[in-house]
Design brief:
The chain is mainly alpha-helical. It has twelve helices and four strands; from the N terminus they run ααβαβββααααααααα. Helix 3 packs across helix 5 and helix 5 packs across helix 8.
């Protein structure tokens, strides 16, 4: 793993996907939406999360799994995130991680991510999660996730907000991942590592991992962009947004590759050398 450029001079507002920013601004302009989100849903979820993680998973600390804790600390340092989030592992062989909590974030990675990703790939995954936190995504994520939980039915006014913001939040969620992928790339500073992470997450069998063809995946992502443009593409995007909680990985690969090729990534790295 090559030494990383520490990004001490970075403005995350310039990294965020423009639709990520635009849609959040529209949501925040809805009267009483943000106060309802922060004071009810997020407050309840924060309390639940503190209890949940006290008794679940393996906590990653300087004493327990110190190598993983050091890697998370290095990722935070690389992308200029001041504190190191709580971190734990749970048993599942999906290659994934998630963050809960807006005020006191807690990253949970699955065992499959630790076993099947190399160090740079895991840095991309952790950087992606910290990116959501850095850009203020988590309150909106927690609100959206709660729309699918029984908890929403116990909150006064919860059902009304489902009808008002569900479609907009689902549309925004994919753009928040596009932003977080950019920060994941800045964390690992290796486009191939970002793409091989997505290839593995997409379903690459373990026995074929040594023969991953990144160029082929880039070609697939470019073909996806070309194939699903125009009216048909808009329809497919609408269906994918409203039936999948996360954006398709090929679409994410196309977007992070496009951002890398735009020169913005290299400009950020160069300005911090």
């Amino acid at each position: 793993m090559a030494n990383k450029v520490v990004l001490s001079n970075i403005d995350y507002n310039t990294i965020e996907h423009k639709e990520d920013i635009s849609i959040r601004e529209k949501l925040d302009a809805i009267p009483k939406f943000k106060s309802f989100m922060m004071n009810t849903i997020c407050a309840l979820r924060e309390k639940y999360i503190s209890i949940k993680f006290a008794g679940n998973g393996v906590h990653v600390t300087q004493e327990c799994l110190p190598d993983l804790h050091a890697q998370l600390s290095n990722v935070c340092k690389t992308i200029g995130y001041d504190s190191v989030p709580d971190f734990s592992l749970m048993w599942n062989y999906y290659i994934t991680a998630g963050t809960e909590g807006a005020n006191k974030p807690h990253i949970t990675a699955m065992s499959g991510a630790i076993d099947l990703l190399n160090e740079d790939e895991l840095s991309f995954l952790l950087g992606h999660e910290i990116g959501h936190q850095t850009c203020g995504h988590k309150p909106y994520h927690m609100f959206l996730e709660t729309l699918y939980m029984p908890l929403i039915n116990t909150v006064p006014g919860g059902k009304i907000w489902i009808g008002l913001v569900r479609s907009t939040l689902l549309n925004w969620y994919r753009y928040s991942d596009f932003t977080a992928d950019r920060i994941g790339l800045l964390a690992c500073q290796d486009l191939n590592a970002a793409l091989t992470t997505m290839i593995k997450m997409s379903g690459m069998p373990k026995k074929y991992i040594s023969s991953i063809n990144v160029n082929s995946f880039i070609k697939q992502s470019q073909e996806f962009d070309e194939m699903y443009s125009g009216i048909t593409g808009n329809l497919i995007n609408y269906v994918s947004i409203n039936t999948a909680f996360n954006p398709w990985l090929v679409a994410r690969a196309a977007e992070v590759y496009r951002w890398y090729k735009s020169g913005d990534y290299e400009n950020i790295i160069h300005s911090n050398r």
